[in-house]
Model the fold of this input.
Amino acid sequence: MSQVLVLVELTDGKPADSTRELLAAAAMLGEPAAVVVAEPGVAKALAADLAKLGAATVYAAGVAGADALLVTPQVAALAAAASTAGPTAVIVGSTPDSREAGARLAVRLGGAYLSDVLAIDANGTVTQTAFGGSYNVTASAAKGVAVISIRSNSIDGAAAAASGTVVDLDVSSDSAPTTAITARHEAVAAAERPALKAANIVVSGGRGLGSKEKFVLVEELADSLGAALGASRAAVDAGYCEHNLQVGQTGTTVSPNLYIAVGISGAIQHLAGMQSSKTIVAINKDENSPIFDIADFGIVGDLFTVVPQFMEAVKARKTS
Amino acid sequence: MMKIAVLVKEVPDTWSDRRIDPATKRVDRSGDVVIDEINEKAVEVALQTKESGGGEVTAVTMGPKNALDAVRKALAMGADAGIHIIDDALGGSDAVQTSAALAAALGSRGFDLIIAGNESTDGRTASIPAMLAERLGMAQATFLRTLSVADGAVSGERMTEDGHVEITATLPAVVSVTEQIAEARFPNFKGIMAAKKKPVEVLTLSDLGIDAGDAGGANSWSVVDTVTVKPPREGGTVIKDDGTAGQQLADYLASAKLI
Ligand SMILES: Cc1cc2nc3c(=O)[nH]c(=O)nc-3n(C[C@H](O)[C@H](O)[C@H](O)COP(=O)(O)OP(=O)(O)OC[C@H]3O[C@@H](n4cnc5c(N)ncnc54)[C@H](O)[C@@H]3O)c2cc1C
Ligand SMILES: Nc1ncnc2c1ncn2[C@@H]1O[C@H](COP(=O)(O)O)[C@@H](O)[C@H]1O
Done:
């Protein structure tokens, strides 16, 4: 069985949560092989974890200062692993780093780049969506290696545990000009609230909240439901919250079981990022808002009275 | 003098009903098309960079006849010259092929800085800038929400899923910008008139030195196999708050076992 390479994303030096599904996707196409870039000597220590998640082989590239280099070490490692493994496919995650590593690799190896993939079958045909979920598309590689970027939380299950045999890679001869990462500002506060992409419930606030101070109401609502927090672009632009909470065409695409839109009008570009949610609830004082055209349950009313009452009602249910 | 290229793309207007043509399985570009909003912002950044340090801005597009409008818009905003890559044989190119054509057009011209949007609203692959860096052997400084150029280097804040990182690269570099980067200026009348006289170079497949056997949908690395329309979502119940809407919502969600 031919190998399928997986670029392992790291968080705090450990395989990221995405590793499970990336190796599971690889197992559908062949024998999963993990590719890890880390400080020299460190990658090997991850082999046991990766073996549990299904990696038969662990290609380990030790790169001094790996954490301070943008994307190029990962491309070099994938290319080096590919020249040993001769893979049919390469699987990468959905962070900007992984997507860009995959894109560059497709050029370096000569292959197809399939982005934002939601599902994959044993023949290597992938499912994508287009135009905010209005179309389902299937695609495949016509020639060369298929480099497939998987949208997070798309693939269920896990690959069977494997041996995790370590193969060292030497990428010191890579000549691509580098970009230095000089500082990181990445909130680890994620632990307090579920991540937008993975959440079962998403509560999003829009310009209707009116100010950063009042935006706290949707944060409270999200926390009372154990939900992830999202926002419209207008709310982000107005500075009510961080940009990485933006849902929509140019933000994150979500499809939770429950999406609650608070003070959001439902512009087409916002709908593009959430209209495939299973159940949609909207609270808006303007009955002509387009968000009501797609809401399963819509409330025409003032969010500043409806939301507190709803939270009270939820609390009452929990305690009764 | 800094030589700056800015990559602009004409896309179906996100405000319109965007379609994929079921026969060709390609994006239907016959409806309302506009310069992608992110590319107006890229042009703005190119112009600001020129204004602070001197230089020359060339707007580059690959696409059918309409795509020239995106270049014209950039020229009207203040770009100095344009390049339009156009050839029927390029139709249906995938990202890997598009990056090859753009690289062929840009490669030998000595650009210090190539500025793109981070992600187009039609293809959404977010791949072209990285692919160009790979092909041109330039550093990539991508997904920037801030950008500054000084002492032969470009620096800025790169957006990540959990926040941002600060990055810096030596020129020449390929840069991509996110929508937080800047508000694009509006072209004024003078700009629009001046744009008509600015040079736009037209490049075809043979100018690029790309073999016809490698070009376009018939020779792409990836192929679209099927396209299906999802039925539009239907609305459900809409109630007017009579003072109990919060309570009713809780009841609804509880009966649907969602809370
Ligand atoms: C290329 C492009 C990409 C874009 N990408 C995105 C994207 O990714 N995500 C995104 O969200 N947008 C995106 N947009 C912007 C989009 O067009 C809208 O401008 C934006 O979604 C509007 O956000 P909003 O609904 O919060 O604001 P508004 O449209 O201003 O709506 C605010 C709503 O709040 C309601 N309201 C006000 N006060 C109250 C109250 N007290 N109680 C109840 N309701 C109240 C109002 O009735 C109104 O409907 C994009 C636009 C373009 C051109
Ligand atoms: N056909 C094209 N012509 C010019 N620039 C393009 C083209 N396709 C993509 N780009 C550039 O690459 C960016 C990212 O697009 P994409 O990788 O397709 O998501 C866009 O914002 C443009 O700056």
Q: What stands out?
A: The radius of gyration of chain A is 22 Å. The pocket of flavin-adenine dinucleotide (ligand 1) is lined by residues A 206-208, 232-235, 246-251, 263-265, 267, 269-270, 273, 283-286, 289, 302-304; B 14, 37, 121 (CB under 6 Å).
